[in-house]
From TrEMBL:
Pfam families the UniProt entry points to: AraC_binding, HTH_18
PANTHER family: HTH-TYPE TRANSCRIPTIONAL ACTIVATOR RHAS-RELATED (PTHR46796), TRANSCRIPTIONAL REGULATORY PROTEIN (PTHR46796:SF2)
SMART domains per record: HTH_ARAC
Protein name: AraC-like DNA-binding protein
Key words of the record: Activator, DNA-binding, Transcription, Transcription regulation
Residue span, HTH araC/xylS-type domain: 156-257
C-alpha cells in the first residue's frame, strides 16, 4: 500500500473562486465543512466520501458537488489512491449568476455526463475566465437541483453588509446586536436569510474566515501558536480543532501537504 500522503497544488484563484488539484494516497480528510460550494472532477482512482448519511464512490470522469456547510470527508477508495480537481465557489457568486433567490441544492452529489470543460485548468484564471467558470458551474448546479427559476427575493444588500463585516475582522467576535444593526433586520431573519443566500450560518461563516486568515498567516511563515492568536482562536488546541473541522487536516498536516516551511 502507498505511504500515506496528501499533495495539494493550487491552480489559480480569483475573487470568490479557488481552483486546485490534489492527489491522496493512503490518507484521507477528516470530516469537515466548507462555507462554499465544492465542485470537482475525479481524474483517476476511486474517491470515497461520506456525505448526508451515505457513502459515495467517485470514479474518473464523474463530477461531485458538495453544498456549503454539509459535513463530509474524503479518502482513497483503493490502495492506489486518487487524484481530482476542485473548484471552491462562493455561494454569493452562484446567487448573482442565477439572478437572486435561494441557492440551488443538489441532493445527489455525483453527476454523470456533466460538461468537463470547467476542469481544464491549463489557462490562467483571469477575470473573464473566472466569470465564465462561475456561470458554467452555477448553471450546472441549477440544472442538477432542478431549480425552477428565481426564488423569493432576499435582503441581499443587508446580508452582504453582514458578510463583509464578518470577513473584514473574523478574528473579532461581534455582538449579535452589532450584526442586527449592520443588517437592519432582526437576528432570526438575518440567520434564516444568510443561510439561504450563502449556504452557511453567520457563525459558521465567521469560523471559515478565521481558518482562511490562519491559512494566509501560515503561508506567510508564522508559527502555529502565533497563527492561533492572530486568527482569533481561544488557544492553539481550539485552533487545531476548528481547522481540522474546516479543512479535514490538522494545521501541521495542511502545511506539509502544501510543502510550506515549518516554523516554530
Amino acid at each position: 500500500m502507498a505511504e500515506p500522503s496528501v499533495c495539494i497544488r493550487p491552480q489559480g484563484s480569483a475573487p470568490g473562486v479557488e481552483r486546485f488539484e490534489a492527489v491522496l494516497a493512503g490518507q484521507g480528510f477528516a470530516p469537515h465543512r466548507h462555507d462554499c460550494y465544492a465542485v470537482g472532477l475525479t481524474l483517476s482512482g476511486v474517491q470515497r466520501f461520506r456525505y448526508r448519511g451515505a457513502t459515495w464512490n467517485g470514479l474518473p470522469g464523474q463530477v461531485h458537488v458538495l453544498h456549503p456547510d454539509e459535513l463530509h470527508d474524503g479518502e482513497p477508495g483503493t490502495a492506489a489512491g486518487f487524484a481530482y480537481r476542485m473548484v471552491y465557489l462562493d455561494p454569493a457568486l452562484v446567487g448573482e449568476a442565477l439572478g437572486g433567490g435561494a441557492l440551488p441544492f443538489v441532493a445527489t452529489p455525483l453527476l454523470d455526463g456533466a460538461d468537463l470543460s470547467p476542469w481544464d485548468f491549463a489557462a490562467p484564471l483571469d477575470a473573464l475566465a473566472a466569470q465564465d467558470l462561475v456561470l458554467a458551474l452555477a448553471g450546472l448546479l441549477a440544472a442538477a437541483a432542478g431549480r425552477p427559476g428565481p426564488g423569493r427575493r432576499l435582503e441581499q444588500a443587508a446580508l452582504a453588509r453582514v458578510r463583509e463585516r464578518l470577513a473584514a475582522e473574523p478574528q473579532r467576535l461581534p455582538a449579535m446586536a452589532e450584526l442586527e444593526a449592520c443588517a437592519g433586520v432582526d437576528r432570526w431573519t438575518l440567520a434564516r436569510q444568510f443561510r439561504l443566500a450563502y449556504g452557511v450560518s453567520p457563525s459558521g461563516y465567521r469560523v471559515q474566515r478565521q481558518v482562511a486568515r490562519a491559512q494566509a498567516l501560515m503561508r506567510a511563515g508564522l508559527a502555529l501558536a502565533a497563527v492561533a492568536a492572530e486568527a482569533g482562536f481561544a488557544d492553539q488546541s481550539h485552533f487545531t480543532r476548528q481547522f481540522r473541522r474546516t479543512v479535514g487536516l490538522t494545521p501541521a498536516q495542511w502545511r506539509a501537504a502544501l510543502a510550506l516551511p515549518a516554523r516554530r
